[in-house]
Amino acid sequence: MSKKKKKIGSGIFMALMVLFLYAPIIYTIVFSFNEGKSLTNFTGFSLKWYSKMFANKTMMEALFYTIACAILATAISTVVGTITAIGLSKSRKAVRGIVEQLNQLPIMNPEIVTAIGLLMLFSALHVEKGFFTMLIAHIMFCIPYVILSVMPKLRTLNPNIAEAAMDLGATPWQALTKVIVPQCMPGIISGALIAFTMSFDDFVISYFVTGNGVSNISILVYTESRRVNPSINALSTLIVVIITISLILVNVIPTIASKKEAKLAQDKDI
Can you tell me the distance from the alpha carbon of 8 to that of 19, in angstroms, rounded to the nearest whole number? Predict the structure, then answer.
């Protein structure tokens, strides 16, 4: 087979894969603007389902709880996971190996088992289930992903980089915040994005640890799945837009900043 035919075949295969992955999202976005209530027949363009979505108090509360929980869980788990990873990198090999194996248990453990375990724990401690319990649960299963994202980056660093910074006059805090953390920033950002996605998308654990009056988007969609509600399409489209904008900002802002730094460095050399 010629190289040209292989290239065409690869292009077709890639196009089919992209279509397979993004067709459901495109379908949801298109029918969020459907004038009728049908989810299969597009009868005309309309924004009424968006207006109904914003007027629906339950949907707005679910959106608020989802975003608030995802942001808080991401921030806390990123800080805790990064500090833990840095501490493990300075620990003895045996201790580091044991902790790394323990860190993989929440990831490998089925979500339903984790959810039941957390439900029993909160019940035994007589903790009222609600937003706080959901936040604690999300932080718990997000931290391992942050540690897994930061540890590979720490392994590539010179183990004496912190000591070298302190020899040059930096305090331990300055060595951490101005030397180690900036070097690990790609891993930290990756871990934060994974944590945000896991928290934003979680259903099983959230369903078991929340109480009446508190639900995220996944729980809301599950409760609304038994009846036709095109406002769910509008809500899903809004979520896709929010996540897309967040990903663009996360990828574009560091690129712009690095270009500005390179330009400033070039101007100084001149």
Answer: 16
* Contact (CB, 8 A) for 162 and 175: yes
Domain spans of the chain? Answer: 57-228
Its sign, for the CA torsion 168, 91, 154, 72, is negative
Characterize 90-100 residue by residue with b for buried, 16 or more Cβ atoms within 10 angstroms of its Cβ, and e for exposed. eeeeeeeeeee
Residue 75, token pair as written in the block: 């921030």
What's the pTM value of the predicted model, to 2 decimals?
A: 0.80
DSSP type of residue 170: -
Question: Would you place residue 88 in the very low, low, confident or very high pLDDT band (cuts 50, 70, 90)?
Answer: confident
What's the token pair of residue 270? 């001149």
DSSP calls for 165-200: HHHTT--HHHHIIIIIHHHHHHHHHHHHHHHHHHHH
Q: Give the number of other Cβ atoms within 10 Å of residue 39's Cβ.
A: 15
Q: What is the pLDDT of residues 124-169, one digit of tens each?
A: 988 888 899 999 999 999 999 999 888 888 888 777 787 787 877 7
pLDDT at residue 135, as a whole number: 92
Residue 86 confidence class, pLDDT cut points 50, 70, 90: confident
How far apart, in whole angstroms, are the C-alpha atoms of residue 88 and residue 250? 27
In terms of CATH, what superfamily is 57-228?
MetI-like (1.10.3720.10)
Distance CA 103, CA 77 (A): 13
For residues 234 and 50, the answer to whether their CB atoms sit within 8 Å is: yes
The whole-number pLDDT of residue 193 equals 85
User: In degrees to the nearest 10, what's the CA dihedral of 57, 69, 113, 102?
Assistant: 180
Site of tokens 């649960």: 137
